[in-house]
Specification:
Strand content of chain B: over 45%
Strand content of chain A: over 45%
Oligomer: heterodimer
Helix content of chain B: under 10%
Structural class of chain A: mainly beta
Largest interface: A-B, 32 and 30 residues
Largest sheet of chain A: 7 strands, mixed
Largest sheet of chain B: 6 strands, mixed
Radius of gyration of chain A: 14 Å
Number of strands of chain A: 11
Distance between the termini of chain A: 35 Å
Radius of gyration of chain B: 14 Å
């Protein structure tokens, strides 16, 4: 019952360092998402993917890059970390949204807590 | 622009009592979906309940029900018989508008309500 797995769970970076967050799902979902959660702001979408080899920008994409080389994996990269990127990052996945009113629940990973000093 | 508003930053409820968490939404789309998620102190996001905009009956999932008032654009979560384990942050979310023939399934989240269940 792995579902959506995020690694690492915690990370501390210095300003300017780079890192990659890995998200893996074993539910054969087409769609995957990266969100960030900041106090008092709920979750905001960074990037998403509607299938292998595709990515698109969400609400707050600046400073991040993503890749979806394999259907089960969605990587979030920070090329030059900034203190403003201190946050909790969540990955989620869902079935495709072909049916407008289908449930298509997004299943979330446990999150990655990132601090940029 | 589509938006979710949760006006209650925090709430208290006595164990075994019912509690209503408010959620209002703004959209010009006719087809949309509304979700509630629970985030306990451990941090994971847990799906609770879903309501489609054309569903005629309010959704129910065990002790959770969604009081859907389409004309008022509200989708309040009702938790019956509160338990200590219900203490958590609760998020209301809306699936972003659908373009005919496909959907990105993107979610827009509210800022959450922190519920504390007291013994």
């Amino acid at each position: 019952n792995a579902g959506v797995t995020q690694t690492p769970k915690f990370r501390v970076l210095k300003t300017g360092q780079s890192m990659t967050l890995l998200c893996a799902q074993d539910m054969n979902h087409e769609y995957m998402y990266w969100y960030r959660q900041d106090p008092g702001m709920g979750l905001r979408l960074i990037h998403y993917s509607v299938g292998e080899g595709t990515t698109a920008k969400g609400e707050v994409p600046d400073g991040y890059n993503v890749s979806r080389l394999k259907k089960q994996n969605f990587l979030l990269g920070l090329e030059s970390a900034a203190p403003s990127q201190t946050s909790v990052y969540f990955c989620a996945s869902s079935y495709e949204g072909g049916q407008p009113l289908a449930k298509n629940i997004q299943y979330f990973g446990a999150g990655t807590r990132l601090s940029v000093l | 622009a589509q938006k979710i508003t949760q006006t209650q930053p925090g709430m208290f409820v006595q164990e075994k009592e019912a509690v209503t968490l408010d959620c209002t939404y703004d959209t010009s789309d006719q087809s949309y979906g509304l979700f509630w998620y629970k985030q306990p102190s451990s941090g994971e996001m847990i799906f609770l309940i879903y309501q489609g905009s054309y569903d005629e009956q309010n959704a129910t999932e065990g002790r959770y029900s969604l009081n859907f008032q389409k004309a008022r654009k509200s989708a309040n979560l009702v938790i019956s018989a509160s338990q200590l384990g219900d203490s958590a942050m609760y998020f209301c979310a809306m699936r972003e508008g659908v373009i005919y023939g496909g959907a990105t399934n993107k979610l827009i989240f509210g800022t959450g309500t922190l519920l504390a269940v007291q013994p």
